[in-house]
Specification:
The protein has eleven helices and ten strands. It is α/β, with parallel strands linked by helices. It has three domains: 107 residues, Tetrapyrrole methylase, N-terminal domain (Cobalt-precorrin-4 Transmethylase, domain 1, 3-Layer(aba) Sandwich), CATH 3.40.1010; 106 residues, Tetrapyrrole methylase, C-terminal domain (Methyltransferase, Cobalt-precorrin-4 Transmethylase, Domain 2); 44 residues, no CATH class.
Length: 273
């Protein structure tokens, strides 16, 4: 089978007993960077020396078929440099190929920068979306953020220290100056830090220079005022696109602040001749 194994994102104490046991017995470990994984094995005092195979953005497409076939014969453990493989890291292509070949895929849960940042951000956690890294080019980044301006769910981004300040400026322009943001830095490490404020406040702080791994958590857009007739039209459009009426009513209710039940009933009534 394929075993996706979550590794520590900073603090080695977060390595689970199950992770250590699997690595101690693994014959094949597929790693984002074999050197990083080799150091992890040493740091965890794992004496086993499995066969290490590199899987990264540049070779995943070519390697996935071979590795999926290998997993039909023996267990293949997949790790990234930190956190869960396939989540903004190599692994998705391999999993898709494994599923296509009928290979069992499982995971060893563990540390997640996305979930940790969300949990400690102080922003709503009931609904969220993970957007990964923003585009490097300023124009593409601004376009992406403008497209997310009306997103009602809390948004989680990864960002590099060198682009953090400019990204926060662009967030302020796209989302408005009053949108709440939390910048989480060096999670689980000695210099762990969370800065909370508006985009302008955080951009001024980041402009002085920031180091480390960065996760940015952004408050979702507030509910927009809408007339019942406009909201009903939105519900009907979603239903026409294939979404269930109940789900469509709930989605529009979240965007407008209107009652989901009232929108549902109105849509049902509009269907009657």
């Amino acid at each position: 089978m394929i075993i996706l194994a979550a590794t520590p994102i900073g603090n080695l104490g977060d390595a689970s007993r199950r992770l250590i046991e699997v690595l101690e017995n693994a014959e094949v470990v597929v790693a984002e960077d074999t050197r990083t994984t080799g150091r992890l094995l040493q740091a965890l005092k794992i004496e086993n020396r499995p066969r290490l195979i590199a899987l990264h953005d540049h070779n995943e497409k070519q390697k996935s078929g071979e590795l999926a076939a290998l997993a039909l014969e023996s267990d293949v453990v997949v790790v990234s440099d930190a956190g869960m493989p396939a989540i903004s890291d190599p692994g998705y292509g391999l999993v898709a190929e494994a599923v296509a070949q009928g290979v069992t895929v499982t995971a060893i849960p563990g540390p997640s920068a996305v979930l940790m940042a969300l949990a400690i951000s102080g922003l709503p956690t009931d609904r969220f979306t993970f957007e990964g890294f923003l585009p490097r080019k300023p124009g593409e980044r601004r376009s992406t953020l403008r497209a997310l301006a009306a997103e009602p769910r809390t948004m989680v981004f990864f960002e590099s220290p060198s682009r953090l300040a400019s990204s926060l400026v662009d967030m302020g322009a796209a989302f408005g100056d009053d949108r709440r943001i939390a910048v989480c830095r060096e999670l689980t490490k000695f210099y762990e830090e969370v800065r909370r404020g508006t985009a302008a406040e955080l951009a001024a702080w980041a402009a002085e220079g920031v180091k480390g791994e960065i996760v940015v958590v952004v408050e979702g857009a507030p509910a927009r005022a809408a007339s019942p007739d406009d909201a009903l039209t939105q519900v009907q459009a979603l239903v026409a696109s294939g979404i269930r009426l109940k789900d469509a009513a709930a989605e529009v209710a979240g965007l407008t602040g209107l009652s989901s039940r009232d929108l549902y009933q109105a849509a049902l009534a509009a269907r009657k001749p």
